[in-house]
């Protein structure tokens, strides 16, 4: 029963995730989409320093980030919804900065809160729908439960680690998490249908076959996402690709060290019972 | 290439859909310029509308906006070709007052986050009916048109919780302009101050007895009125402003928003006033508004018994109370009333203001004109969201998304080539992936779906899930050296897995269709659409190709 010891890795990962969430993160960091506020995006063709921008407009209590693009840099400044963006731009200009263009987004805190409560409902529904599809298709409670468990671990781990990497939860990252719900369960579907719906070889051999296919899928997807991340300057695409990348990475241990051993164990128990 | 493969309906369907998609994405023609907007006082009004194409003016071919703008100083009869039809416009005063743009480089409609512009989400206060939403939209449309912002698109939207909003997208406008223009309810009031002299704490106004109580209250005909309290005499509403032992000041309500019949937008000598005047330390703006007969009669009634005072410096004579004009309870103008207007039906008050910078005076004037012309909104509006994307940032987004998309496809192509070491599998896989993206764009252009950043993320996500499904097909079909299953049986298994995984993606995306007032709807719709195109069109065709490749291999290996 050596494969059962593999369970240690995903279980440890899950425990670390829970601990990180409980002790390291100070609540969920939300982007302006979900808490309201103003976000300014300023384009610069020359490198800029976030700290000096922060000090130039410190009276607005800003949060400053710099994103590198293909042709230049984008400075992202988050302030409260009520702040005057023209005044901030004037102050930056007085401090000697010049930007090619400026864009801004403002969301009232009431609207942000409403988005957030809707998002929470959407998350629950997306999970419930996905689980429903899995249970209806496979009609086997335990294997289905393992798949849903694995998807839950993927999403939770991708979410917590993205928060630790400083990616706020926004509508974009939230959409990425929902996509992960459908995406990460792919490898589990492949694994489970190979093991349960095939008669070729032993269950362990079938897991090996599924592993090879699934790793090809993961490597292709990870390759595409890494390229997407590197080739884009859009903050939105950056955030989406990072969250999906984390999910794809966590999916590997969760599928092959959590779902696969549990499924093999279940098959064995069934055989013994029969 | 196996020609038999080309006769398979699945492959034919995929190829023809790709071709149709490419055709429907490509622009109709690059000729001429496209009309973006026409001002209401343009010589082109009634002859062209936004979206029309102008190809030719006065025997000169128009191939870029400047070709047309060259005629900005032209007067006389202008012959022009629009949508293949010859039209004439008689230009009396120079100025085309039309905005045109180069023809789009594709038939795809791009979202504001990719082409730049301003998007505002307004939340009306209180419970709102459809009729009120329509009234809000038409009032704001007037405001925006009068103010001169281009290409504003209005939409009534609601979220899953039942909150209703008005969404406006426009090509330009600064944040402060848009905020001022859209968030002001626009309740206009014109009031005249009446000063009542008191002796021994009493006086009389319109045959009512006025008694001083203290600085914050008075008695009118025996009944108490507190500071800022209102009362009515003779059909006129008054507000009690302040009182001393010697006098009390009332504000008579003379004009209301509904009294404004029209606003002078452009100075016309002898007809109406609308101008900027340079002064020592800045600029004064002034424009006339024309009020209804009812309002004018109220003015006559309120002013008929006012005292005349003479300015010792200029010698001008005024009435003893000023006229004040308010917008949303904020003072915009306070005017002296010329003595000869007392008791007259005054229909054209002048609104004035002062700003240090000329451009500020101009903007403020236009803002007030637009709001007064459009009238008050039926309810106050709150700006709950305002996004402003510069065109260059949008362009950068689009470019980087396209480059990133292509690079991702290449990366995947390389990875599958390394894994399968067979170009006969890797090439169809890469091509199918690209054709999926093309078909999604094609469908988007058929259904007039707006491609925004979220939709691009959706396309990339779909292509990603598509590759996964194709890898599953290849591996399912190649699996099993012992040949327990036929290719057809293997295909069935592959299809089972693919359908299950597609169903989970669709299941997870469905809730997104309903949240956040459609912000992320683009992402969900494109992903679901892409997954459906994938399982319905791309996957069957790809499966057929792999089947053919593997069949041939089996034949050669068994021979």
Account of the 3D structure:
The complex is a heterodimer of chains A (274) and B (559). Chain A has 2 domains: 37-107, Alpha-Beta Plaits, CATH 3.30.70.260; 111-273, Multidrug efflux transporter AcrB transmembrane fold. Chain A is 68% helix and 10% strand. Chain A has 9 helices and 4 strands. Chain A has a 4-stranded antiparallel sheet. The two termini of chain B are 21 Å apart. In chain B, strands 1, 2, 3, 4, 5 and 6 form a 6-stranded antiparallel sheet that branches. In chain B, strands 16-17-18-11-24-25 form a 6-stranded antiparallel sheet. In chain B, strands 9-10-8-27 form a 4-stranded antiparallel sheet. In chain B, helix 2 (9-25) packs across helix 10, helix 9 runs parallel beside helix 11 (453-478) and helix 12 (487-509) packs antiparallel against helix 13. Chain B is α+β, with helices and mostly antiparallel strands. Chain B is elongated. Among the domains of chain B are: 3-25 and 391-558, Multidrug efflux transporter AcrB transmembrane fold (Up-down Bundle); 33-101, Roll (Pdz3 Domain), CATH 2.30.42; 109-187 and 380-389, Alpha-Beta Plaits (2-Layer Sandwich). The interface between A and B is large, with 80 and 83 residues.
């Amino acid at each position: 029963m050596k494969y059962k010891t593999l369970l240690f890795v995903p279980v440890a990962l899950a425990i670390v995730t829970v601990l990180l969430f409980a002790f390291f993160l100070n609540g969920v960091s939300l982007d302006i989409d979900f808490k309201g506020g103003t976000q300014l995006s300023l384009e610069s063709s020359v490198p800029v320093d976030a700290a000096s921008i922060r000090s130039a407009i410190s009276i607005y209590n800003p949060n400053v980030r710099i994103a590198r693009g293909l042709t230049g840099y984008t400075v992202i400044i988050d302030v409260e919804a009520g702040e005057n963006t023209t005044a901030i731009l004037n102050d930056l200009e007085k401090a000697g900065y010049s930007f090619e263009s400026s864009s801004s987004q403002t969301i009232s805190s009431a609207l942000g809160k409403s988005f957030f409560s809707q998002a929470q409902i959407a998350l629950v529904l997306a999970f419930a729908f996905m689980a429903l599809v899995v249970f209806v298709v496979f009609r086997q409670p335990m294997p289905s439960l393992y798949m849903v468990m694995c998807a839950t671990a993927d999403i939770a781990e991708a979410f917590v680690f993205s928060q630790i990497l400083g990616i706020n939860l926004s509508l974009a990252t939230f959409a990425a998490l929902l996509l992960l719900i459908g995406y990460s369960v792919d490898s589990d579907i492949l694994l489970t249908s190979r093991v349960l719906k095939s008669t070729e070889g032993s269950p362990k051999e079938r897991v090996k076959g599924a592993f090879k296919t699934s790793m090809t899928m993961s490597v292709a997807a990870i390759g595409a996402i890494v390229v997407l991340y590197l080739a884009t300057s859009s903050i939105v695409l950056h955030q989406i690709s990072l969250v999906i990348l984390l999910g794809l990475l966590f999916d590997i241990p969760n599928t092959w060290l959590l779902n696969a051993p549990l499924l093999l164990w279940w098959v064995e128990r069934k055989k013994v019972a029969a | 290439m196996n020609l038999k493969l080309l006769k398979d309906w699945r492959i034919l369907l995929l190829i023809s859909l790709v071709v149709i998609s490419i055709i429907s994405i490509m622009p109709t023609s690059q000729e001429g310029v496209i009309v973006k907007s026409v001002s209401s006082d343009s010589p082109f009004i009634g002859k062209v509308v936004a979206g029309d194409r102008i190809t030719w003016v006065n025997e000169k071919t128009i191939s870029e906006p400047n070709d047309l703008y060259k005629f900005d100083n032209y007067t006389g009869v202008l012959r022009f070709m629009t949508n293949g039809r010859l039209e004439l416009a008689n230009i009396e005063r120079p100025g085309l007052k039309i905005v045109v743009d180069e023809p789009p480089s594709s038939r795809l409609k791009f979202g504001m986050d990719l082409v730049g512009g301003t998007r505002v989400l307004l939340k009306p206060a209180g419970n709102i009916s459809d009729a009120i939403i329509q009234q809000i939209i038409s009032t704001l449309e007037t405001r925006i048109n009068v103010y001169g912002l281009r290409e504003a698109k209005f939409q009534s939207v609601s979220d899953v919780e039942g909150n209703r909003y008005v969404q406006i997208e426009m090509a330009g406008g600064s944040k402060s302009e848009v905020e001022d223009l859209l968030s002001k309810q626009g309740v206009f009031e014109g009031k005249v101050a009446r000063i009542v002299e008191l002796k021994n704490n009493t006086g009389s106004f319109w045959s009512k007895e006025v008694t001083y109580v203290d600085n914050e209250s008075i008695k009118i005909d025996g009944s108490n009125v507190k500071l800022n309290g209102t009362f009515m005499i003779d059909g006129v509403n008054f507000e009690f402003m302040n009182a001393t032992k010697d006098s009390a000041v009332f504000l008579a309500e003379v004009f209301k928003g509904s009294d404004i019949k029209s606003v002078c937008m452009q100075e016309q000598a002898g007809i109406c006033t609308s101008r900027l005047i340079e002064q020592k330390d800045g600029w004064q703006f002034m424009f006339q508004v024309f009020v209804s007969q009812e309002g004018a009669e109220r003015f006559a009634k309120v002013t008929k018994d006012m005292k005349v005072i003479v300015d010792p410096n200029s010698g001008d004579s005024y009435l003893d109370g000023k006229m004040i004009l308010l917008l949303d309870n904020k003072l915009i103008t306070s005017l002296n009333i010329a003595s000869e207007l007392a008791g007259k039906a005054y229909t054209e008050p002048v609104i004035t203001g002062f700003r240090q910078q000329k451009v500020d005076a101009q903007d403020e004037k236009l803002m007030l004109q637009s709001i007064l012309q459009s009238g008050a909104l039926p309810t106050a509006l709150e700006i709950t969201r305002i996004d402003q994307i510069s065109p260059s940032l949008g362009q950068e987004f689009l470019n980087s998304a396209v480059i990133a998309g292509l690079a991702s496809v290449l990366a995947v192509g390389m990875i599958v080539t390394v894994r399968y070491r067979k170009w006969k599998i890797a090439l169809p896989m890469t091509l199918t992936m690209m054709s999926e993206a093309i078909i999604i764009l094609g469908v988007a252009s058929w259904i007039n779906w707006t491609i925004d950043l979220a939709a691009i993320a959706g396309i990339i996500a779909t292509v990603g899930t598509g590759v996964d499904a194709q890898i599953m097909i290849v591996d399912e079909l190649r699996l099993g050296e012992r040949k327990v299953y036929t290719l057809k049986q293997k295909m069935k298994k592959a299809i089972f897995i693919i359908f299950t995984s597609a169903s989970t993606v669709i299941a997870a995306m469905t809730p997104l269709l309903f949240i956040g007032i459609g912000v992320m709807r683009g992402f969900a719709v494109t992903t679901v659409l892409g997954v459906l195109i994938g399982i319905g069109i791309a996957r069957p065709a790809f499966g057929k190709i792999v089947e053919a490749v593997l069949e041939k291999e089996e034949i050669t290996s068994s021979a």
